[in-house]
């Protein structure tokens, strides 16, 4: 969905250089490279007015009416957006390990083995 929005809002320009009816170069967002056979406009004679090369350019205009402001949202939407953003940012932070108070205290010593004494075993 994001790719579709991006492609529909960006203006695209495709520039093609044709030499004798065949495509020599295609460029997006820039000028296409020429084949080097263009006629120089300063040394142009009357019989060589027509060049064998053509430049074809196609521009697709993107949409410009997708501007939405943060203040166009009502209060409930703003609160949700701020809360979601805060929660999402904190989701990727490290969680501190919980310290327990009994780490320094060893377990009690058992005088008797109660499982053997009462013959109760977990299977």
From TrEMBL:
It comes from the Bacteria. It comes from Flagellimonas ochracea. InterPro entries: DUF8199, HYC_CC_PP. This is Secreted protein. NCBIfam families: HYC_CC_PP (NF047658).
């Amino acid at each position: 969905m994001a790719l579709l929005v991006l492609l529909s809002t960006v203006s695209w320009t495709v520039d093609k250089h044709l030499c004798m009816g065949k495509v020599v170069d295609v460029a997006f967002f820039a000028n296409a490279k020429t084949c080097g056979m263009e006629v120089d406009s300063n040394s142009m004679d009357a019989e060589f007015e027509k060049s064998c090369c053509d430049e074809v350019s196609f521009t697709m205009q993107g949409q410009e009416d997708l501007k939405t402001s943060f203040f166009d949202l009502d209060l409930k939407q703003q609160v949700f957006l701020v809360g979601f953003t805060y929660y999402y940012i904190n989701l990727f932070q490290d969680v501190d390990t919980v310290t327990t108070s009994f780490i320094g205290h060893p377990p009690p010593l058992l005088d008797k083995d109660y499982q053997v004494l009462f013959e109760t075993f977990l299977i």
